[in-house]
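Sorry to interrupt, but I need a hand with the structure work. Could you add the entry underneath, on a fresh line?
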Amino acid sequence: MPAAALKPKPLPTQSTAKRPVLLDLPYAPLEKRPLPPGRPREWYVTHNRRLKAMRLAIALLDSGIYMPNQARNETIRDTAELIGVHPPSDTTCHMVRAFMRYSR
């Protein structure tokens, strides 16, 4: 018997399911760890901005917005309110679109 016949079929995802896969909202984030000490303040600001932009990009993708041109600042800020984070700045909104653009 070929090895391919023995592999179990993967579970359907949002893109392959016949019906939309329900998402659990809100999700439980991982336990936070302290950031490493001794870095310049700008490093912490950029690090936290990237984390926030990544969370927002994931939430937008989960909600069905796949293209960066669909994610206007208002849409990103509405999504931020939905998932419970502070409204992002214009710079963070730009970073969210960049994450969506380069994730392919």
User: Anything to note?
Assistant: DSSP finds four helices and no strands in the chain. The mean pLDDT is 82.
